[in-house]
């Protein structure tokens, strides 16, 4: 299996299609929630909506780089989004997340091995491969949180 296929399959596993590692994926966990569940605060945890925005922030930011753009995302802004005040607001966020994830997966799937192994934006950030792998690990961390929060909500 080629490196681009391997990484794309791992991204599909966590974001849209998989069940092998955790028995679920982001899309499956959020698709059946309504906006009140997604924004329900449990103790001092982030809400599910907070976490979906947070992960999508990174997907969209790195996706921009994969399309030839600049790296403009900053950790300090990764939870800054307009409040979810309606079902439509929530559905818009879910749709954006799913579309960004699908496009990100497709971009990775179409990358050459040379590009994947090259420096990401600047040498200090490591390779594209390292950054994509870090996104997968970061996403699993937050998917685990979403699963636990969702259990507490339901």
At a glance:
This is DUF1572 domain-containing protein. Helix content is 61%, strand content 0%.
Structure explained in plain terms:
It is a single chain. The chain contains 7 helices and no strands. It has helices at residues 3-15, 26-30, 35-38, 48-66, 87-109, 113-116, 128-153. α4 packs antiparallel against α7. 30% of the residues are buried.
Task: Tell me the series of helices and strands, N- to C-terminal.
Answer: HHHHHHH
Strand content: under 5%
Give the fraction of residues assigned to helices: 55-70%
Low-confidence stretches: none
End-to-end gap: 40 Å
Shape: globular
How many strands, which pairing sense, and closed or not: the largest β-sheet?
none
Beta-strand segment tally: 0
Structural class: mainly alpha
Mean pLDDT: 97
Number of helices: 7
Q: What is the CA-atom radius of gyration, in angstroms?
A: 16 Å
Organism: Mesonia maritima
InterPro entries: DinB/YfiT-like
Protein name: DUF1572 domain-containing protein
Q: How are the SSEs ordered, and which strands pair?
A:
Blueprint: H1 3-15, H2 26-30, H3 35-38, H4 48-66, H5 87-109, H6 113-116, H7 128-153
Helix pairs in contact: 1-5, 1-7, 4-5, 4-7
């Amino acid at each position: 299996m080629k490196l681009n296929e391997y990484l794309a399959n791992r991204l599909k596993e966590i974001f849209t299609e998989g069940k092998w590692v955790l028995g679920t994926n982001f899309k499956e966990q959020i698709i059946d929630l309504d906006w009140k569940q997604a924004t329900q605060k449990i103790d001092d945890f982030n809400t599910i909506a907070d976490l979906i925005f947070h992960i999508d922030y990174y997907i969209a930011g790195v996706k921009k780089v994969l399309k030839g753009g600049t790296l403009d995302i900053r950790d300090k802004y990764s939870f800054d989004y307009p409040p979810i005040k309606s079902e439509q607001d929530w559905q818009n966020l879910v749709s954006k997340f799913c579309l960004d994830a699908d496009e990100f997966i497709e971009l990775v799937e179409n990358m050459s091995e040379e590009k994947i192994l090259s420096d990401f934006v600047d040498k200090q950030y490591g390779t594209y491969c390292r950054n994509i792998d870090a996104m997968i690990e970061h996403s699993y961390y937050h998917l685990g949180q979403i699963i636990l929060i969702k259990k507490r909500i339901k």
